[in-house]
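Dear colleagues,

I hope this message finds you well. In preparation for our joint manuscript, I am sending the RING-type E3 ubiquitin transferase (Serpula lacrymans var. lacrymans) sequence together with its predicted structure, so that both groups work from identical material. I would be grateful if you could confirm receipt.
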Amino acid sequence: MSQGNPQDEADRIRAKRLAKLQASTAPSSKPPSPGPSQASAPSSTPISPSPKPKVSAAPSPVPVRSVEPLASPSVLLKRKPAVTPLKVDILSWQDDTLSHVLKVTLDKSVAEKSGYDIVWLKNLAADRPDRLAGQTKPIRLSGDIIDRLLIARLELDPQAMSDDFEYVAVLASLPPQMSVFEYLVGCWKRLRSIRATLLKKLAQPPVNEIQQASLILEKLRDLIISYTGLTLQEPEMFPQPQGRLLGPPELVASLLSLSALSTPLSSSVSPPGSLDASEIESFLQDLALRFEPDHEIDDVLGPVVRQLLFHQSLWRPEGLSGGDSSWRGIVSGLEALVSVKSIAVMITRLPEWNTPSATAASFEKMTLMGPLCRLNVFSVEWPIIAQTYFSDPTKRTKADVESSYASLRGTLKSLQSSLFQIFNTLVRASPESREAVLQYFATAVNLNKRRSGMQVEAETVASDSFMVNLQSVLLRFAEPFMDARYTKIDRIDTLYYAVSQRLDLKEETRIKATSDEAAKWVEENRDNASAPNFISDIFYLSLALSHYGYLKTIQTYEDFAKHVDELQRHLDMISGDGSWMGSPFQARTEAAINQVKADMAKIQAQQLAFRVQLLDPELVFRSIGFMNFVSTWLIRSIDPKKSHPSPIVELPLPVDVPMSFRVLPEYILEDVVDYLLFVVRHSPESFDLSGKNELVIFALTFLTSTWYIKNPFLKAKVNETIFYGILPYGNERHGILGGTLNTHPLALRHLMPALMHFYIAEVEQTGASSQFYDKFSKRNIAYILKAIWDNPTHRQALKNETHNVEKFVRFVNLMINDVTYLMDESLSELTQIHNIQTEMKDEATWATKSAQYRREREGTLRQLERHASGYTTLGKSTVGLLKDFTGETKAPFMMPEIVDKLAAMLDYNLDALVGPKCKELTVKDPEKYKFSPRQLLSDILQVYLNLSDQGDFVRAVAGDGRSYRKELFELAAATARRVPLKTETELEQLRLFVVKVEEAKATIEAEEDLGEIPDEFLDPLMFTVMRDPVTLPSSRTIIDRSTIKSHLLSDSKDPFNRAPLTIDDVVPDPELKARIDAFLADRRNKSTALDKPEAEIVNMDVSMD
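The corresponding structure tokens are as follows:
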């Protein structure tokens, strides 16, 4: 202990503390409002510096609140008879009020009567200069010594030692574990209660006295709040109890208790030293009023905000699940803090609001809002949720899974709604806080651009949970400008990327512009555009966050399914035929099987956890609304009239693509397609309410005007969206889009030409080395046409397309190429499946094979089974399309470059289905491969029937020396009669067709007996006599017109030097043609029966034995 005078030492410490407090509060001081109260509470000569002798200078409603009650009574007095004023002894009131609020007295007897609940400030009582020697009158408390009363009380230490027995009694009466903060909160609460009581009891008080009382209460409140702020900054300035958290944690505890769900049920009456929900807002307002000037509030409440938002409960492995819902207390506490505007602004000023040193991965852990925003259900960050709610996924019932969905989605809705309310409050607090919030979102985007990559390590970027939660907040911000009539769509600045530096697009691919073109566009428009508005900021930030966040999370979810498929194949390979059972390898094999099953169960549980959020109906509904809005905005930006959707854009679009559209990031268009495709595939019921019309309009716009998109794979995705939209769903035979495609005016006018244009111009030109094979996963036109084929309007549109002969012939040629490839692949793989199944059926021989051989064959079988169903399904649909088209229009199929190819394809497949090798197509469980040979045979025969009256087709079939045999038709007719597939009338028509073919064949054989043919008369590719020779301009090669036309249908290059070539470029060679014609006339002098009426060709009975 110090050897000096204890009293002097105490005064020295007191003076030092008060000087520090005064220094921290002086800038915000100003004299109280003038009034009689200044005379009623005269200041005495100060003994020590005062921390806050005057009312706070902050622009505050407090003085107004204290005077406002006077207005109402004064008006009432005018309306009522005069009332004798209520006499109030202001000096007695001061003494009673200060004693009650501060729980102090200068009169020992008062303390004794209260059982020392009221503390006797013995040293201060003895120190009073106005205390006369021998005076026995009790010492009253007054407004001029409030600061000294408060300091004296705060300096009391229950743990202190003293030789003064009277003082010991005082120390012993102090609550031993009450902190300074708790004491000051108790004072504030009692003051609040007294002020409310005063205003009620003094309904008609003398004006002077109520003003005096109000100013005293204001001064008292100001001092209590000042010392509270000082305690929050430096908890050790005054004596404190040992062994407990002091300062900011005490206020944090009150904030955490605001949520009824975060703590056990307790009494509705809060302890004297704590704050309840009805008090916390007023308390925070008083703190803000006192410390907001000069940003002092940053030091007072900054630590509170940090400790609240980095609370340890946010790092629990259980996250937002489980019985501990303490995160709700953090949300409620933060909501209370931001409800005070100056505190909300202060939060966005703190360094941790948007930590400059944060990386992509640490951003959500180092920024204030990060820990709250990373709460979700995704398994990478929160694996316990998947393990808890979706363990043993294969054993859970649908009701059980749906119950878990409902529980977790309810929690997510509560969290995300609160997050939006918090961010919304911050945005509205001030222009500075709004900018800070926007920059927070922008930083999250710019740091995480790597998330969009194909192979990204999860620990190097922000979590799915964090990014999706931010997306949910932005979608809520976007709702006000996404009204049904699009009244605010023009407020979105199309020059945003030219004037805003918020988003970094340097590495982004543009829709149809180079980097140099984009940079030039920015330079040209930077000075001509105004600063972006809030709507534009939210719109473009939502687009970016969707790309790097929500859509990437969807891709992760899609990858789970691929991983499960891989594991299933691995499991099938390990399991094999079971020959390992009873062998020395049984234990090891069983362990491997169990491990694979456990891995599959883990991934399936993760899938279910992802579905909780990704397929949450509320999030999906908002996302569809946003993507529909984006698609409408994109179309409006390229609509020459800038009026879409009222009226709807006219298609096709102009050839010139606006630069403002070309320079947009490609991900805007891609994300619209990807998200709509995801919903169509995984949650088609989400379109029941809205979105179908917008989807169809968007798809048709870019299918009819494909030159607006550079990326061929993106174009294919647009078509794929329509395809998935017509797959059967529920009671809808043609899916969610079938009805719209058959009724919407835009679809009725443009769907057929759009599909044909896409089929012809886009699928072939992917630029990849595998483009011939890639197209079959994208060319789903057969399914779409099937969904609209019964509509007369669409069929008329097809007939209209045939008027453009060259275009339609290219379409037919590609369709025949597809059928040829698909049928060849599907029948080939079915043959291989048949062979392996036959081999395995002979168990005795199979058992003699080595284990490695059996595993290899089983692996091959599984691979074939996966591929076969796809080929057979698409092949069957394309043959069906060919059947429908040949029934509707015939002329295009009779073009020289088409008819021979069509005949050869049909004959080849007829041979495969009914010829000698048809038995090789017999497989176990054909439905598994979606193989229906009878339906396939019926469709092929129907194509023959549709074209049976065309002489060119008859001649083409007859000229097919590779596959045509009349015996094939006889076998096919027998099968068609037995099943039955065709009527007797149709079978007779088929018989007559074969008769004509046979006649034509005989004629062709006679024509071909031409002897030796000069080489110059032969086609260089087909080695047949040219009928219409033409010269290719670049290679100078002479070739038959029909041959080069057929080539150009699928390849726009000269086959001899790969130079660009069109049919219009070829040069006729009339001199050579004349010589060929003369040669043929000299060698052949026979007439043919082609194109003659049937009656002149044969005369046979109608019946067919």
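For the figure legend, we might mention the following. DSSP finds 46 helices and five strands in the chain. The beta strands are 104-105, 119-120, 1029-1031, 1038-1040, 1067-1068.

With kind regards,
E.M.
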